[in-house]
Specification:
Elements (H helix, E strand, L loop, with lengths): L6 H9 L8 H21 L9 E5 L5 E3 H14 L5 E6 L17 E9 L10 E9 L9 H4 L8 E7 L3 E6 L4 E7 L4 E6 L10 E3 L10 H12 L3 E2 L5 H11 L2 E4 L12 H14 L3 E3 L19 E4 L1 H14 L4
Parallel strand pairs: 3-4, 10-11, 10-12
Antiparallel strand pairs: 1-2, 4-5, 5-6, 6-7, 7-8, 8-9, 12-14, 13-14
Helix pairs in contact: 2-3, 5-8
The site of 6-O-phosphono-alpha-D-fructofuranose has 8 residues, from loops.
């Protein structure tokens, strides 16, 4: 049992599993951890300094940008751009590809992120999170293009999230299990707290915005009726990372399905659904649109939305059965 091991040591131990490893990924991930610590510091004192409230402009999604969103995005870009490991970045907050400035070396990875998901909850002190996904850059390409990011989730080399809650927890996978690390602010280190996370085969929690029930398609309606009949608990924070993290540890299902109002759902494929799908599958769970495995989707645009049904294997499979039996095309 390696509980309590610092993340830096854990990464080096993981690196030894790959004799040909150059250490570039470990260095890239270490830069990401620095950004996470900086964002955690600001999120945890947001109430004490004037970065609460909107930054008076809207982002590419047409959503009012909270100052912490802006801060988290800028922190990730500034921390990651000079490390020499990336050929480009993509962020929920930025319309196109974030180039690596010419004064910095470029590397063989692509980083995608939602810098502060759930940011509308900041002002009411509900947990928010950062979600990230790492791809390899296509060979022979120095500068990343949008097309380089449009790859199915099965090609991710790493995915993870940081949830800034009662404590700051970083959860990630590189395809060899899922591990969670809790930040100990007194030493400034993430320490291994959840080794080899496995999501229960079946849960007793369902997470969906019931306020959308008038838009639900028959497949969603019948599934939600079933879980209520089976005595499931309703838990919905309205912060994807918080809802996902709870269900990952306790078992359960999160749904943001296609409906009459949002035929493609609300959540983003490349930097929300794909990373969480990689994690949940590595933990023994499933992630689907209702019709298709999330990780198999061929992306068509950087910020495309996708229906997301994710969590315990038996629960997602039951939701898929309801969806496929009863849902007509929107
Ligand atoms: P709704 C937050 O804005 C977010 O992107 C996710 O974190 C969350 O799961 C979802 O939207 C909540 O959306 O429509 O239920 O408020």
């Amino acid at each position: 049992m390696r509980i309590g091991m610092p993340l830096t040591k854990f990464l080096l131990e993981e690196q030894r599993l790959y004799p040909k490893s150059t250490g570039n990924f470990t260095s890239l991930f270490s830069d990401l951890v620095v950004a996470a610590k900086i964002i955690s510091r600001e999120v945890n004192k947001a109430g004490l300094i004037n970065i609460i409230g909107s930054a008076d402009y809207t982002n590419v999604q047409g959503e009012e940008v909270q100052k912490l969103d802006e801060y988290a995005n800028n922190t990730l870009v500034r921390t990651m751009e000079h490390g020499g490991h990336l050929a480009g970045m993509a962020s929920e907050e930025i319309d196109g590809v974030i180039d690596i400035p010419d004064e910095y070396p470029r590397g063989n990875y692509l980083l995608l992120f939602d810098p502060l998901d759930g940011s509308s909850n900041i002002d009411v002190n509900i947990s928010v999170g950062t979600i990230f996904s790492i791809l390899r850059r296509p060979d022979g390409r120095e500068k990343a293009t949008v097309g380089d990011f449009l790859r199915p989730g099965i090609e991710q080399v790493c995915a993870g999230y940081i949830v800034y809650g009662s404590s700051t927890i970083l959860v990630y996978t590189t395809g060899h299990g899922v591990h969670g690390f809790t930040l100990d602010p007194s030493v400034g280190e993430f320490l291994l707290s959840h080794e080899d996370i496995r999501i229960p085969e079946k849960g007793k929690i369902y997470s969906i915005n019931e306020g959308n029930s008038k838009y639900w398609l028959p497949g969603t309606q019948s599934y939600i009726e079933k879980v209520k009949e089976d005595g499931y608990k309703a838990r919905y924070v309205g912060s994807l990372v918080s809802d996902f993290h709870r269900n990952l540890l306790k078992g359960g299902i999160f749904l943001y399905p296609a409906d009459k109002k949002s035929p493609n759902g609300k959540l983003r494929l490349l930097y929300e659904a794909n990373p969480l799908a990689f994690i949940v599958e590595q933990a023994g769970g499933c992630a689907s649109t209702g019709d298709k495995r999330i990780l198999d989707i061929e992306p068509e645009e950087l910020h495309q939305r996708v229906p997301l049904i994710i969590g315990s294997k038996a629960d997602v499979e039951e939701a898929e059965r309801c969806w496929q039996q009863e849902t007509v095309a929107v």
